[in-house]
Design a protein that fits this description.
acyltransferase, binds acetyl coenzyme *A, alpha+beta, cytoplasm, five-stranded mixed β-sheet, Peroxisomal Thiolase, Chain A, domain 1, globular
Length: 344
């Protein structure tokens, strides 16, 4: 097994500060009843094992960039300025394998000419994207970064696989980050990131990349779909999110009781509860929208933050812990004090 872990040393006084946030979910909703009509499953199984009741899905013809543009527009509006020097898009479902999707998104947002590229870290894409944006700002490469996390996850889900079809869904969330002071509200705190590629087979799309293409063997259609070994993944998700969270909280100089809001990747309600229990964060401080949006991959944390802020569950001054886990395996955690922003 290969493992790696990275924490962000404080090397600069320029922090990335959240100054705008927006989100978007496609209008079509799939209920558990819709799924039970075509899969060997039940509303009771889905609710008790995952906590999901409904999810939003794209309709034919809608791609990740369409979701990303909607969320990006809202974040820029929330920030009160349509300016960004860089557009970073975290996604597992790019519009096509080449080129990256971010340049097209930037162009459609009127940000043509800005640096634009994709970040691939599956469900940890938003936290890896925050690290990327923070680095661009700290290094003086950019003063303002639009970070979007978007996934049309259902486009890689096998509709006949009850193990994944009931969980994954589509959506997008975005934040605008500006250069600021590490101590001000909205400043992204110390980031803890890690990966374990020795377990990459637990979450994968087997075909479509250079490994399969260079084999000369045509892929079976089902190899283009996402596969997840749920039970094995579960254990690693709880372990790594708990450990990364403890480390991020300590590096911020906080203690778990200081955390006002726990915002974890919405993988599964039971995983969220297990991690929050281990961190001794009471239920009243746990943000969750998985019941209504399912697991939206990389989009899930900014979508959660935007919806919670819009609903008044997350307000200026709250000390927030973010943590994620997903394919790679890749995980992360960070902290921030919620800024005075209007989520759109
Ligand atoms: N309806 C009914 N039965 C089902 C369904 C379903 N939708 N799906 C699976 N089952 C069955 C299985 O076939 C199995 O039956 P068997 O015992 O006869 O073989 C039984 O339920 C138990 O299956 P498990 O997969 O062990 O069920 P579990 O309780 O572990 O729940 C789940 C599955 C929800 C996927 C859970 O394991 C999980 O959430 N894992 C972690 C997911 C995660 O965190 N992923 C990382 C982030 S996402 C990302 O990176 C893209």
């Amino acid at each position: 097994m290969s493992t790696s872990a990275m924490t962000s040393p404080v090397v600069t006084d320029r922090a990335a500060v959240i100054t705008g946030i927006g989100s978007y979910v496609p209008p079509d909703v799939v209920t558990n009843e819709d799924l039970t009509a075509r899969l060997d499953t039940s509303d009771e199984w889905i609710r008790t094992r995952t906590g999901i009741a409904t999810r939003h899905v794209v309709t034919p013809g809608t791609a990740t960039s369409d979701l990303a543009v909607e969320a990006g527009q809202r974040a820029l509006k929330s920030a009160g300025s349509a300016v960004a020097d860089a557009v970073v898009l975290a996604t597992t479902t790019p519009d096509q394998p080449c080129p990256a999707t971010a340049p097209a998104v930037a162009s459609r947002l009127g940000l043509g000419g800005a640096a634009a590229f994709d970040v691939s870290a599956v469900c940890s894409g938003f936290l890896y994207g925050l690290a990327t944006a923070s680095g661009l700002i700290a290094a003086g490469v950019a003063d303002r970064v639009l970070l979007i996390a978007a996934d049309a996850f259902t486009t890689i889900i096998d509709p006949r696989d009850r193990g994944t079809a009931v969980i994954f869904a589509d959506g997008a969330g975005a934040v605008v980050l500006r250069a600021g002071d590490p101590q001000e509200p909205g400043a992204v705190g110390p980031l803890v990131l890690g990966s374990d590629g020795g377990l990459s087979h637990l979450i994968e799309v087997p075909a479509g990349g250079s490994r399969q293409r260079s084999s000369g063997r045509p892929a079976a259609p089902e190899e283009h779909y996402f596969r997840m070994r749920g039970r094995d993944t579960y254990r690693h998700a709880v372990e790594h999110m708990t450990r990364a969270s403890h480390e991020a909280v300590a590096r911020a100089g906080w203690r778990p009781p200081d955390i006002d809001r726990f915002a974890a990747h919405q993988a599964n309600a039971r995983i969220l509860a297990a991690v929050a229990d281990r961190l001794e964060i009471p239920p009243s401080r746990r943000l969750s929208n998985i019941e209504h949006v399912g697991n939206t991959g990389g989009a899930s944390i900014p979508l959660l933050l935007a919806q919670a802020a819009a609903a008044g569950q997350l307000t200026a001054g709250h000390k927030v812990l973010l943590t994620s886990f997903g394919g790679g395996l890749a995980w992360g955690a960070t902290t921030l004090q919620w800024p005075d922003v209007t989520a759109i």
